[in-house]
Design brief:
The chain is α+β, with helices and mostly antiparallel strands and about 600 residues long. It contains 20 helices and 19 strands. The strands form four sheets. Strands 12, 13, 14, 15, 16, 17, 18 and 19 form an eight-stranded mixed β-sheet that branches. The chain has a five-stranded mixed β-sheet with strand order 9-8-7-10-11, with helices on both faces. A hairpin with a 5-residue loop joins strand 1 and strand 2. Keywords: Cytoplasm, DNA damage, DNA excision, DNA repair, Excision nuclease, SOS response.
Length: about 600
């Protein structure tokens, strides 16, 4: 049931196109959507019954905002902008870069052919994407042998090695006519667009000529080039009668999940496919439309000449926004490819459901058990902290992040603590906790980033109270904090929770998935901080030993550490290796003698 605040806002909604942003209890945007009629769409969230992820979204909504647009097209564009800016939890979010390699022919007086991961508006020719870097490299190597451009730096005043090998047109020592480059580039373009008949015929003729002239080594090279075409190009099934680069999108939807398949048709062949399975809130047709718009809004993405989509999709809107012809084929091979994409999407989603049945209780279900045991609203993100030091030396802290019961390792963080730790005084753990909590969450506030639903401190009441003190009294944040406690065998026992004056231990069933997840979080943060501390301590210990050597200052220590990385490797290094870093011979000798004496002791 909607709150009184939301009911009042619903009554004021206009029946116009635009975007809406759903917010949680902390004011963070958790979902962005678009609508042709804002009044009808937004009201549907609160006035209709829902299941699955939509039900979970609605349970977390505490407020919303709307932005009116003039047209539905503007709403599409604004939605993509807002999603990329706020990265809402419940939206489909694509990474900014595709990571696909492309083949590039540069736009310059003496062009070269190369592999790149960046697409720029520089007048160059781009071909791809290619399934992997190896395939692209093999193709470039083949082209450099058959249709060479420039392979050297140019203007060397003498022929380069590649020129003698027949893989450079000679920009190294002469001016190559532009029309010669143009002719080669035209042949390369035909080859990369899938027309290999002419190049195969040309190579066969050259091979026969070389064999007739008893140039058997050259004939063997040409034979290998023909085999490359047969094995890597012609072996792929031709699936299109034309050579139009096109992308094909289709989907399958069931139980709140959409499975999307993207087929990349290049050189008249299926060069690559991409698959995604995503939980969605809105209609699957709208979800696929949003996906496609984000797909081509990423960096380093070369748009095709044509997009094929299933019926009911807003093809005209996609075409208008992207300025790429967008069609739904009615018959023939293109329709068959669209059907094949849908079939693959269904197979992927069916497999996903089978795995989810096995995995659900161990991930998000287990995380919900922890929230329920603490008596707090369920959330998606848990952040856990632990500290490490040796007798007060080299204090560090580390944080791990679990989202819906799964470790999000890209979000892990390590901290070198500034304060000195005196192991005799337990309050120092509080000092370490205050420092790391202050640094972590003041940064999140500064960046307007999403906050976790729960913070776990590896330790007891001291760490719990210190963390809560910084959050509430310094940062004005009210994030639940619990302490992970261990038994006398140093094994996970439970959680400490409650107000400052009445902290109690929360018992979890030791055979439950929630308890297993808590064990995993505690073990993971402990592993992460110990690994970090060992590396820090080893590096500092090495630095300390080098400090004691006469004549070795901060710059020399930095050079040695950067080059060799460990004390043993410096000891193994020769005098010449150390001198090669720009270290004077007398200082290098002193380093060798000092470290050798240290070893003997």
């Amino acid at each position: 049931m909607a709150s009184e605040h939301i009911e009042h806002k619903l009554a004021l909604l206009p029946g116009l196109p635009g975007c809406y942003m759903m917010k949680d209890v902390n004011g963070h945007i958790i979902y962005v959507g678009k609508a042709k009629n804002l009044k009808n769409r937004v009201r549907s969230y609160f006035k209709s019954s829902h299941t699955g992820k939509t039900e979970k979204l609605v349970s977390e909504i505490r407020d919303f905002e709307t932005i009116i647009t003039s047209t539905d097209k503007e709403a599409f564009l604004l939605e993509i902008t807002l999603i990329q800016k706020h990265q809402p939890y419940y939206n489909i979010r694509l990474k900014q870069g595709t990571g696909y390699p492309y083949i590039k022919i540069t736009n310059e007086r003496d062009p070269v052919i190369m592999i790149t991961g960046k697409i720029a508006k520089d007048g160059a020719y781009y071909f791809g994407p290619y399934p992997n870097v190896y395939a692209a490299e093999e193709t470039v190597r083949f082209i450099q042998k058959v249709y060479p451009l420039r392979r050297c730096q140019g203007h060397l005043g003498r022929p380069c090695l590649y020129y003698h090998m027949g893989q450079c047109l000679g920009a190294c020592f002469k001016e190559v006519p532009e029309e010669v480059y143009a002719a080669q580039i035209e042949k390369i373009k035909r080859f990369l667009n899938g027309n290999v008949t002419s190049v195969k015929r040309e190579l066969s003729e050259k091979m026969q000529t070389a064999a007739a002239a008893m140039q058997y080594e050259r004939a063997g090279e040409l034979r290998d080039q023909i085999r490359y075409i047969e094995q890597t190009v012609e072996r792929q099934k031709i699936i299109s009668n034309d050579h139009t680069p096109r992308d094909i999108f289709n989907f399958y939807y069931d139980k709140g999940y959409i499975s999307i398949q993207v087929f990349f048709i290049r050189q008249a062949k299926l060069m690559k496919r991409e698959k995604r399975v995503l939980p969605i809130i809105n209609d699957p047709v709208e979800a696929l439309t949003t996906f496609i718009l984000q797909f081509y809004n990423r960096k380093n993405n070369l748009p095709p000449k044509e997009i094929l989509v299933p019926a009911n999709l807003e093809a005209e809107t996609i075409e208008t926004v992207l300025n790429i012809p967008t069609r739904t084929p009615q018959r023939g091979e293109k329709r068959a490819l669209l059907a094949l994409a849908k079939k693959n999407a269904k197979l992927v989603l069916d497999e996903k459901f089978r795995l989810m049945e096995l995995d659900e209780s161990k991930t998000s279900g287990a995380q919900d058990e922890i929230f329920k045991a603490l008596g707090i609203p369920s959330g998606h993100t848990i952040e856990a902290f632990d500290h490490s030091h040796i007798m007060g030396q080299d204090p560090v802290s580390a944080m791990v992040v679990f989202q819906d019961g799964r470790p999000a390792k890209k979000l892990y963080r390590k901290y070198k603590l500034k304060g000195e730790v005196e192991h005799q005084n337990g309050a120092d753990e509080a000092s370490n906790t205050r420092e790391v909590i202050r640094r972590r969450y003041s940064r999140l506030l500064k960046e307007h980033a999403a906050l976790p639903a729960l913070i776990l401190m590896d330790g007891g009441q001291i760490e719990l109270l210190a963390a809560r003190d910084v959050l509430e009294n310094e940062l004005d944040l009210h994030i639940p904090v619990a302490g992970m406690v261990k038994n006398d065998k140093h094994k996970t026992a439970g959680l400490l929770f409650g107000p400052d004056d009445a902290i109690y231990e929360v018992a979890l069933d030791h055979k439950s998935q929630g308890f297993y997840l808590l064990q995993r979080i505690q073990d993971e943060v402990h592993r992460f901080v110990i690994t970090f501390h060992r590396r820090t301590h080893a590096k500092n210990s090495l630095s300390s030993q080098l400090e004691s050597i006469k004549g070795v200052g901060p710059k020399t220590r930095t050079k040695l550490l950067k080059e060799f990385g460990s004390l043993s490797k410096i000891k193994e290094a020769s005098l010449e290796d150390i001198q090669a870093l720009g270290i004077p011979k007398n200082i290098a000798q002193m380093i060798k003698v000092s470290l050798t004496n240290t070893t003997k002791v």
